[in-house]
């Protein structure tokens, strides 16, 4: 069965947030009504040492679309997701994200954009482009966003782009650092603040 969408959660020690992340993603996709076709929610766990996997096990019973990849080496979640995702479009998330941002990203893909980016928040991308660019990319969400932007720029194209919501000085500083990790060969450390 062909899936219209793979929502990909990049997880590492997200116990406090994983239930909300899963529910929020499912709500966004299901709220799309007639536009929603079969989808999957792919949780990629990077060797969490908290109860992230236990919570995902409980959620599996309630959410049939949920699949989990576990024991993925740190920094390899994007690669594993690119290899395992089955949807025509992908939405990558590594934190609790405002549903409006996820909806905006999906709407950009439906309107013909190849990718949509909110820095540090979401990456919505066509599966073909995602597989090509992310299938060998070590790092996290911000590294994936940069790789997609670079690939599109090389083709004379641009991703749809929206500024990240202002979450304060600490979040802005963390996003700045995450954006530079790949430049110094440390993209495997690309994770949201607090993980």
From TrEMBL:
GO function terms (MF aspect): transferase activity
Protein name: Glycosyl transferase family 2
Keyword Acetylation belongs to the record: no
Matches recorded under Pfam families: Glycos_transf_2 (PF00535)
Keyword vocabulary terms for this entry: Transferase
Domain of life: Bacteria
Natural source organism: Nannocystis exedens
Residues of the Glycosyltransferase 2-like domain: 6-92
UniProt signal peptide: none
InterPro entries referenced in this protein's UniProt entry, alphabetically: Glyco_trans_2-like, Nucleotide-diphossugar_trans
């Amino acid at each position: 069965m062909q899936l219209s969408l793979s929502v990909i959660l990049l997880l590492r020690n997200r116990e406090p947030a994983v239930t909300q992340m899963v529910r929020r993603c499912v709500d966004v996709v299901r709220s799309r009504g007639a536009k929603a076709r079969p989808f999957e929610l792919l949780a990629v766990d990077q060797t969490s040492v908290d109860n992230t996997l236990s919570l995902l096990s409980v959620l599996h019973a309630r959410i049939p679309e949920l699949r989990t990849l576990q024991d993925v080496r740190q920094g390899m979640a994007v690669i594993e997701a690119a290899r395992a995702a089955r949807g025509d479009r992908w939405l990558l998330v590594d934190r609790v994200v405002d549903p409006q941002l996820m909806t905006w990203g999906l709407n950009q893909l439906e309107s013909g954009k190849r990718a949509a980016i909110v820095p540090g928040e979401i990456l919505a991308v066509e599966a073909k482009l995602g597989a090509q660019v992310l299938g060998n990319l070590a790092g996290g969400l911000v590294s994936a966003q940069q790789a997609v932007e670079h690939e599109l720029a090389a083709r004379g194209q641009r991703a749809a782009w929206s500024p990240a919501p202002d979450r304060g000085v600490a979040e802005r500083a963390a996003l700045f650092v995450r954006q530079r990790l790949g430049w110094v060969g440390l993209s495997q450390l690309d994770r949201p603040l607090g993980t």
